[in-house]
Amino acid sequence: MTYTKPWEQGALKVTENGRYFSCGDTPFFWMGDTAWLLFHRLTEEETRNYLRNRKELGYNIILADFLHSPEQENCAGDAALVNGDFNRINRDGGFWKHVDSVIRIAEELGLYMGILPVWGSNIVAGGSLNEENLDTYMDFILDRYHDASNIVWIVGGDVRGDVNPGLFERMGQRMKQDNPGRLVGYHPFGRTSSSLWFHEAKWLDFNLFQSGHRRYDQTELGAWDDNAAAEGCFGEDCWRYVERDYGKKPAKPVLDGEPSYEWVVQGLHDKKQPYWKAADVRRYAYWNVFAGAAGHTYGHNSIMQFYDNLSEEGAFGARYLWSDAVHHPGGAQMIHLKRLMQSVDFTHGRPAEDYLLEEQGEKYDYISVFAGEDFLFAYTYTGRTISLSLEHYQGKKLGAYWLDPVTGLQTFICDVTGRMQMEFRPPEREDGTDAVLVIRT
After folding, report:
1. Are the CB atoms for 256 and 206 separated by under 8 Å?
2. Residue 400 in 3-state DSSP?
3. Record's superkingdom (predicted)?
4. Do 174 and 292 belong to one domain?
5. Same structural domain, 267 and 369
6. What does the longest C-alpha to C-alpha distance in the chain come to?
7. CA distance 199 to 201
8. Could you say which of 280, 314, 347 is where a domain stops?
9. Residues 188, 270 within the same domain
10. Are residues 322 and 195 part of one domain?
11. Residue 392 belongs to what H/E stretch?
């Protein structure tokens, strides 16, 4: 089977308005999957099966890191470094040959790889990657993958930008100098954004934030991943991170790089807590995108760590094999959002809460609205009635539809041509209360 390769339309770049991505003149809606340990845990055959599954579900970029620790080995026991020393790279060893194979498989399938050269915990002050060995490692990485057509570089890795800003700046600058046309981002610590430290950096092409994985009532858990309240902790209101970064100058695309994962324990640390499930990952996705995000990054607890042995305890309450988790509903439902956005000129749309004739609502009652010249989308998580002004669309022939975010089915409601305002009550159904209102030509 031959798969479409988006870079054949042109290099992946930021659109002229600074809000979205395109390959050449073709809009690119970022739909990512989180596969942090992909290079470490899977065989080549398993990798091909996983990547094909994601490609056929509509994903177009896979996030993973080369090294989670200096002693990193792959599933065949091949080490990336000699004795964990970044100055002694096992250049011709099986680890890097396997990495080459994974990137090649992704390229054959038409998938971008959002790659972190090393996980952020290794770059904290006094970490194993430092000023003495950074250039040796970066020389190797940038030379080896200089010509790869399907790589987006990502600095950081679940770490604050101020723990070693000089080194992060150096990494980003080197990535951009090596290939000025290749996109570079930064994956930050929980409930923070790359914009807090690097928004004006010339090497940073887009902002990633991490909204997950806590509930509204889990602001402070006394855990290692608590963060400073002064930075803004918005609970489950992921859209607020988008709103904050959307307003910054210069305009840059913004994405949720780590929302709450499907089947991860709420708050991560207490395994007696409930799990985030499909309805929750849908809510994060629609709230983010309708707030102006340039796409979305999905995650599943079992997939991000490629949990493969039920007799051993997985991280954060993992309870399903990754090979089962790739078939779970939340991951399969992301394609409905992607198809919806691609059905219109989303790159010229905007958050449009001003079209609401009622309060947007708080927490779960929040209604998000995204609109363009000839379309309007509105999302309700709780099934609230949606009241809208349609004055902007006078003179346009428009129909209204309900989109079921579980099945992707769109059903016609009525013709709204000439209506100045309308009220829409979502239909009841058995498998959830969330609904998407679609108004289009």
Report:
1. no
2. strand
3. Bacteria
4. yes
5. no
6. 71
7. 6
8. 347
9. yes
10. yes
11. none
Sites in the chain below the pLDDT cut of 50: none
Residue 230, burial from CB neighbour count under 10 angstroms (0-12, 13-18, 19+): exposed
Host domain of residue 403: 352-440
Hey, what are 272's tokens?
């007696």
User: What CATH code is carried by the domain that includes residue 431?
Assistant: 2.60.40
Structural contact between residues 263 and 218, judged by C-beta atoms closer than 8 angstroms: no
Single pTM value for the model: 0.97
Task: Tell me which residue has tokens 């950074």.
Answer: 134
Q: Where are the beta strands (DSSP E) in 90-174?
A: 112-116, 151-156
Predicted pLDDT at 275: 98
DSSP 314: P
Instruction: Quote the CA–CA distance of 431 and 263 in Å, as a whole number.
Output: 17
pLDDT of residue 229: 66
The number of domains in the chain is 2
- For tokens 């988008």, the residue is 242
For residue 65, the SS3 value is: strand
Cβ–Cβ under 8 Å, residues 80 and 91: no
One domain, residues 21 and 54: yes
Closest CA to 395 of 415, 412, 375, 419: 419
Using only C-alpha atoms, the chain has a radius of gyration, in whole angstroms, of: 22
Measure Cα distances from 337 to 7, 173, 398 in Å: 22, 34, 20
Give dist(CA 317, CA 295) in Å, integer.
28
Per-residue model confidence (pLDDT) at position 38: 98
Q: Which of 347, 370, 404 represents a domain boundary (last residue)?
A: 347
Q: Number of C-alpha atoms within 13 angstroms, CB side, residue 333?
A: 26
In a domain, 1, yes or no: no
Same domain membership, residue 363 and residue 291: no
